[in-house]
Design brief:
By secondary structure, the chain is mainly beta. The protein has strands at about 5-10, 10-20, 25-30, 40-50, 55-65, 75-80, 80-90, 100-110. The termini are far apart.
């Protein structure tokens, strides 16, 4: 499997930061530990969906990475000039070396 982890991805998490006016904003920041792991990427098809008065082109993919315990479905992946929203995080079983993340990317077009 190690030779198939041939794509560098970036992992990000949304955090609240002070906005200077007493409120907070939501920002995406890189993971504090190993924010750019190697992955095997498998594109799994896509399609178009009507949304918000336009059409959204969606692409689904599976990202296989070395097992880690700090991923959440609310995190996201940056890969191939797209933002990939994590749909599910496969939890590695005892002694598992890898885990699979399902993610979706989409862009709104008029």
């Amino acid at each position: 499997m190690i030779g198939k982890l041939d794509q560098k991805i970036a992992l990000e998490r949304q955090v609240r930061t002070p906005d200077g006016g007493g409120g907070q904003t939501l920002d995406w920041v890189p993971f504090p530990s190993d924010p750019k792991p190697w992955a095997k990427v498998e594109l799994k098809g896509g399609g178009e969906v009507a949304q918000g008065g336009g059409t959204v082109a969606k692409q689904r993919a599976l990202f296989t990475i070395r097992a880690r315990s700090d991923l959440r479905a609310s995190d996201r992946i940056l890969w191939g000039d797209l933002v990939w929203n994590i749909v599910s995080v496969g939890r590695p079983v005892a002694r598992a070396r890898y885990q699979v993340i399902e993610a979706v990317a989409g862009e709104l077009s008029a």
